[in-house]
Amino acid sequence: MSGLNRGKFDIIADILREIESEAERTRVQTEVGIPTNRCKAYLQKLENHGLAEKEKQPTSLWKITDKGRQFLEEYKSVRKIIPRNNS
Q1: 38-57, pLDDT tens digit by residue?
Q2: Which of 4, 34, 38, 72 has the fewest CB atoms within 10 Å, counting from its CB?
Q3: Total tally of structural domains belonging to the chain
Q4: Which residues belong to any copy of the ArnR1-like winged helix-turn-helix domain (predicted)?
């Protein structure tokens, strides 16, 4: 999901939604609409915080963790109160 009004938490949520069904980094960056270097940095931070994990065999697929799902649920609750700015 692309957009000019996304903050860091919006981008994190978009990435986590994309990897709910496992995805390679290139698909994540394309679908989320961020450059390669930013995508790599976000995925590394998500992994460091336990929100995502990388499966190395047979290919490098990223997937969401239980902690990442918890983040998404909390994020959805906040967005019900404070929607994304679409103007």
Answers
A1: 999 999 999 999 999 998 87
A2: 4
A3: 1
A4: 6-81
